[in-house]
Amino acid sequence: MRAGQICAFPTETVYGLGADATNADAVLRVYEAKGRPRFNPLIVHCTDLAMARKLVVFSPLAEKLAAEFWPGPMTLVLPLRAESGIADIVTAGLSTLAVRIPAHPMARELIADAGTPLAAPSANPSGRLSPTRAAEVISGFEGKIPVLDGGPCHAGLESTILTVAEDKVVQLRAGALAREDVAAALGTDVAMAGKGSVIAAPGMLLSHYAPKAGIRLNAEVPRAGEAYLAFGATPETDGPMRNLSPTGDLREAARNLFTCLHELDALGLKEIAVAPIPDQGLGEAINDRLSRAAAPRDPEVVA
Asked: Is the CATH code 3.40.50.11030 the one for domain 214-294?
C-alpha cells in the first residue's frame, strides 16, 4: 500500500480492493483491475473518526450518525474538504466523498499501518458478485491480486450509504445497516434516493452485483434447468438449490447471499430462480442487490 500497490482485505461487510486514497496512480490500478467505470466513485475507509474529519465536513447530524454507528457498516457521503489530499479520481469529480470506519479489526490495522485512508470498492470484477471470502477474491481475479485473508465476512452485504442534506438523512444505498435502525436511532424518518438518481455514491448503478447466470425473482418454485435460491421453506426440486436461511432469518440471509449466489453460479446454469424475500429490515438491502443483479446487463459496466 505504501508503495502505491493494491491489495484485497476483509471488512465486516465484504472484501474490499484497497489503494492509498491520496495516490491517483494507485487508485487508477483499482479501477483498472476491476474494469470499473470512472464515473462510479469509491468509498474511502478510515481507521478512526479523527482521520475521517480531515477528509470531510461533518454537520451535527452527521456527527450523531458517526457516534451511533461507527465503526460499522455505514458509509456517509459528506462535503469534501479542499485540503483533504484525496485524489480526484476517487470522487469521480464530485464535491462530496463517501467515507466509513470498518468494524473489522484487520481492516483498521491495515489502514493504520499504511498511514493513509484507503479507497476500496468491493474486491470483484466490476458489476459481478461481491466476495465475502478470500477464496472468492482469488477466483474472481484469477490469483492476480494479493489478498489478506480475514475469514468470512460477518455481515455479507455492503455498507449502507447515507447522506445528510438540510438536516435530513437520505439513504443512497441499502446495506448491512437497516434503514429502520437508523430511523430509530435518530427518532426521524430516513428518506430513500429514487432509482435512476444521479450516481452520487457506489452501488447506485441499475445493473450491478450480477452473477454470470440470469436471475428470476420472486419464484415460488424453480423451473426445469434452473438453480434455486430458497428462503425459509424449500420446495421439492431435483435441481441444485441453496437456502439463504431455512428459518427465515433476514440477518442470516444477508450473510449468506453472495456466497450462495457464487456457489450456484459456479454450476454453469443459465438461470437462478430466487424465492420471494420480505422487503423489511435487511430484506430491503437483499432485494436491492437481487433487483440490480436481475436488471438488463450494461456491457460497459458488467464485464
From this structure: yes
Given a contact cutoff of 8 angstroms between Cβ atoms, the answer to whether 273 and 238 are in contact is no
Q: Exposed, middle or buried, 247 (CB in 10 Å: 0-12/13-18/19+)?
A: exposed
Specify whether the CB–CB gap between 176 and 285 falls below 8 A.
yes
Concatenated DSSP letters for 62-126? HHHHHHHH-SSSEEEEEEBPTTS---HHHHTT-SEEEEE--S-HHHHHHHHHHTS-EE--BSSST
Q: What residue spans in the chain does CATH classification 3.90.870.10 cover? A: 7-192
- Residues sharing a CB contact under 8 Å with residue 83, sequence separation 6 or more, in sequence order: none
Residue type, 249: D
Angle between helices 179-186 and 60-69 (to 10 degrees): 120
**What confidence tens digit (pLDDT) does each residue in 236-253 have?**
888 999 999 999 999 999
Query: Is the pTM value of this prediction over 0.70?
Result: yes
| All cell numbers assigned to 78 | 459528506
Start-end of CATH 3.40.50.11030 domains in the chain? 214-294
How many residues belong to the chain? 303
User: Do 273 and 224 form a contact (C-beta atoms < 8 A)?
Assistant: no
7-9 and 16-20 strand pairing: antiparallel
Name the architecture of domain 7-192: Alpha-Beta Complex (3.90)
